[in-house]
Amino acid sequence: MKSDRPNPTVTSRVTILDVARAAGVSKSSVSRFLDERMPKSDSETARRVRQIAVELGYVRDVSASSLRRGKTGMVGVIVPRLTDTVMAMLYEALAHAATRSGQFTIVATTEDEPGADRRAADLLLRRGVDGLILSTAREGDTLTDELVDRGVPFVLALRTDGKCRSSIGDDALGGYLATRHLIDLGHRRIGLIAGPRHASSARGRVSGYENAMAEAGLEIRPEWIKPSTFGIESGADAARKLMLIPDRPTAIFAVNDNTAIGAMSALLRLGLSVPNDVSLVGYNDIPIVSHLPTPLTSVKIPFDQIATAAFELLAAETVSSNDRIRVAVPSLIPRGSTKPRKE
Question: Where does the record place the HTH lacI-type domain (predicted)?
Answer without folding.
Answer: 14-69
